[in-house]
Amino acid sequence: MIRNRPVAAVALLLSALTVLLAVLLLGNARGVGLLAGYAGAWALFAAAVVVLRRVPGRSVVPLLLAGAIAVTATGLTAAPSTSTDSYRYAWDGRVQASGASPYDHAPDDPALVELRDEWLFPDAAACARSEADLAPLDDGLCTRINRPTVHTIYPPAAEVWFLLVHAVSPDGVRHKALQTAAALLALAVTGLLVVITRRRGDPRRAALWAWCPAVPVEAVNNAHVDILAVLLSVAALAVVARHRVTGGVLLGLAVATKMLPALLVPGALSGARRPRAVLTVLLPAVTTVGALYLPYVLLSRESVLGYLSGYAREEGYDEAGASGRYALLRLVLPDAWAVPAVVLVMTAVALTVWRRGDPERPWSGALVTTGTAFLLLTPGYSWYALLLVALVALDGRWEWLGVTLAGATAYLAAPLTGQGAATTAYGIAAAAVCAGWWTRRRPDGADPDPARPRPRPRPRPRPRDEPAIHTTETRHHA
Fold it and tell me: For residues 42 and 404, what is the distance between their CA atoms, to the nearest angstrom?
């Protein structure tokens, strides 16, 4: 009975987490209510991970997988709640199925008017209600697709994914197609993490991904294509130490899905000091990216980079003083120094990871480079950190999850309270990372990983000259 108490406690916490996430999504929570509910979900998630340490080994994997299915499924309970990116995905898939290139036509292009339907392009009555997720068009109508006047920004592997989901989806399924596909990918990541962490001793760390609230909200409900990049990235890091060419190909696929996995390159090259070892990873990666871009280059009249440069300007990555980017650096440096400082620091971190990283744990260096980039750039979109969550699950350095929370704060709280909330959140995350690094250097060698089971204390050996303790109770009377 005592041994089952941790299992029951974890099950209860996961049930509460599942209910809370479902209520938030079904209720279409906004503003302070969404922030409070999301914070509560993270608190339940943290408690479940901590209690998991007490669960007996034979019960860990079944409990972990059952929780993953329940938590992931909450993302399917409602239409996309905090992002409209998946509507662009659906449109890009539809455009490609018609034989056109998504890099040649913006959604408002009259040449593609025959592809419009009432879901992505509502009627005048719906447009008159001025709903928050509707973007106006020049003809007085509207669309659910954000930035309808610009070309797509997504790389070719992402576009292939959009086309594939469109091709296998029944008519009229709408947002459920991309959400269901994303849920399957999220569960695939969980399965892969369980396999990797189990081979290395204990699968409990996989819970840091499987039960994380960011997964059902950003990967499933909002169906961000980042989930495909995460799966490919985890697979690449899992095999690159033994099969460099395969790892390079998978890394190239990840980069061709979302540019962010390019930050994993130094980690993938950890300890590879010989030029041949480096090229065995880099050449397949570059070749894969080029091979995926080539068909779109040949079929498109416009640039296949789409709105990438415009997005960088819009988000303030080219001019530090224009937005909330580089927020921590701008606290101590002039705005004009922010970009050079990022280049300098990231170069130093990448070289250190490459030269001194552990080739048997490439995800450890990848976590450092990716997490450092987040702290320096302070991005305003929470789904970018899905990759970081997976790396945390691989490496067990849970303190980096604070960066994920900071990204969510920047996305959800900044519109309500201004950029100060995002800066504060990233500052707290940076302090947590530094504290975690210092804690792991303690002389006592204690391991602060909440997903690692606590070792049972060994009984103190009895010296030979110490008398045995008899079980019979001896009573002394005054």
Answer: 11
